[in-house]
Structures are given as C-alpha cells and as structure tokens.
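Write out this protein's structure.
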Amino acid sequence: PRSEAFTPTSRPPPTKQRVFAMCGPTSESTIKVGFLGCGTIAAAIATGLATQNKVKVASIAVSHRSASKSKALQESFPDLVSIHEDNQEIVDQSDIVFLCVLPKYASQVLQDLQFDNTKHSLVSIVVRNNKNVACDMHYFDHSFTHNHSLIIYF
C-alpha cells in the first residue's frame, strides 16, 4: 500500500515518529478508533487493533454498514466495539478515523462530517485510482489537511 501525508506533492510520507506522536509512544497511551464503513478490510483492521498489545485501544466505534461484520466484531470484543447508525457519532468518539467505504461513496460520507482539528487523524482505505473519485475527494483533501494532523491514503 502507498501512504501519503496530506497531498502527494506537499509533504513527505508520515514517519514512525509522526505516527507515535499521533498514537502516543508509551504503552500507557490509549487511542479511540472509528470506522466509517465496516466491510472486510475494516473488520480485519479492527480485529488487529483489538488483539495487538503495542498500543492500548480504549474503544472501537464502527458503522452499522455490513451489519453482520459489525455485529461479529461487537460479539468478539464486547468491551471495545460499539456499533453506530450515525457517522458523526463515530467521528466524535474517535481520535483516529478510518474511511473504509467504496470509492463512489467516499465524498458523500465525508461531506457532512465535522472533524476537530485538534483531535482527529484520518486514514483512508478508499482506492484512489479512479479519476472521478480523486476529483470528488480533492475538496475534502484540501480542507481537511489544512486543519488536521494527518491524512493517509492506501
């Protein structure tokens, strides 16, 4: 996977130190994670976060999309995972937000969400090889990256 900090031409990729700054370098640090979309990739990442022991995860908020996957996550990790109908609730409860939707829905999902520029980091799992998707997300890229700490694309 390819990752970029902010826009492809404006800044270098995030360093390990930058990611630690976001998550906290010590085992005492905790993060709150949210997933906009809960398909196979989101479920795999959430499971990995729930079962690893490098960074403490305080909570994992997932959307109701793909109800069977979100329900399975909640059943597997009842103390960590909560399911939400409202994407803004997921953002509000998270430090790191994973965007895990089909490319055609990315702009629609993001356009009405309010992010806190002192708190949120966005990780997009949306495939960006489609020119229309890249154009649709250009406005979001520009407005988000001027006020937020980190945006990563895969």
